[in-house]
Design brief:
Layout (H helix, E strand, L loop, with lengths): L25 E2 L5 E2 L17 E3 L6 E3 L8 E6 L15 E6 L5 E7 L15 H7 L5 E4 L4 H9 L4 E3 L8 E2 L9 E2 L2 H10 L12 E2 L10 E2 L2 E4 L8 E6 L4 E6 L2 E2 L10 E2 L1 E7 L1 E3 L6 E3 L3 E9 L2 E9 L7 E4 L6 E2 L4 E7 L4 E4 L2
Parallel strand pairs: 5-8, 6-26, 8-9, 12-25, 19-26
Antiparallel strand pairs: 1-2, 3-4, 5-7, 6-7, 10-11, 13-23, 14-15, 14-27, 15-16, 16-17, 16-18, 19-22, 20-21, 22-23, 23-24
Amino acid sequence: MKLFTGISKVPVIIVLVFSVLALVGCGSEDGKKTGNGIFSEKNGPVEEEQDLAANPLTGLKVKVGNLERRPLAVMIENHPEARPQDGLAQADLVYEMLSEGAITRFMAIYYGNDVEKIGPVRSARPYFIDRAFDYDAVYAYSGGSEEAKTNIKRFKVAALDEFANAKTYWRSKNRRKPHNLYTSTAKLWARASQKGYNREGNVPAFDFLQEGEELPGGIPAGAVTIKYPIGFSIVEYTYDENKGYYLRKTGGKLHLDRATGEQLAARNIIIQQVNTKVIDREGRREMEMVGSGKATLITGKRAYEATWQKDSRRGTTSFYLKNGEPIKLKPGRTWIQVVTTRTPVAIRGE
């Protein structure tokens, strides 16, 4: 039995799950997740131990003060004219999902680090909002579908729309509209503070593997292809043995970060299957984020059968291994690839 429709060489089963990028921890008394590993940023500045704490979303050490604010969830475009994007390389987590038709869109989660330029920023969709709730995040976007705008008001989302917060965003002269809208974490957190949003967030934590620890089982996963339904949206990941993470391509080309020039990379990849249907002539979709279903965890050049579970709109998505235990991640950035139940996914051992 296969883990996904169209997944080659991957046996599968169903269980239940936690969310983001995702990833999960053990439950604490308040019902939230608590992580267990503390790791250092190898390329970051040296800090006194007492000034550092583990980022619950990456397991990496960051300044304690950086965790005393609310995460940001920023909508980022993935049309070919929007590439390369700025700021994806510095996100703690990145979600990729279909928007209209065959085009995917990103939602990047920023918490532990400051980022000077993020974008191009694009419009809201209701199922992205549902995932922003996972992290109690401030949601940043420019316009949106009618359902998304209705949900933002109905559920009182801590939202920073470009149209109501114009000074928080700027237009670049180096790209054509609408592919030229940008923001920064400094501007977003400052505006969030003005609006009373930037309190300390109720942020879940993933469980992380200790240095040298590996998950048992799984199958070889040296390369992964996710066939979103148009060529320029197809995603490929290839494991780098020396660096210990997956390098990303999109549309057959290296996926670069414009600000750094680096190829985008993920320490962990979670592929989450959700029930999806097209709801209008524009190709807009309904994606079921509340419920449960199949997932795959890919980390350390191996793939593991998993499941996901989200009990309510404002709840946290949990991910579990086949044996029912919460998944553990390698410290670092996670990409969560949300796919339909019919999206072809190929996992190869090379």
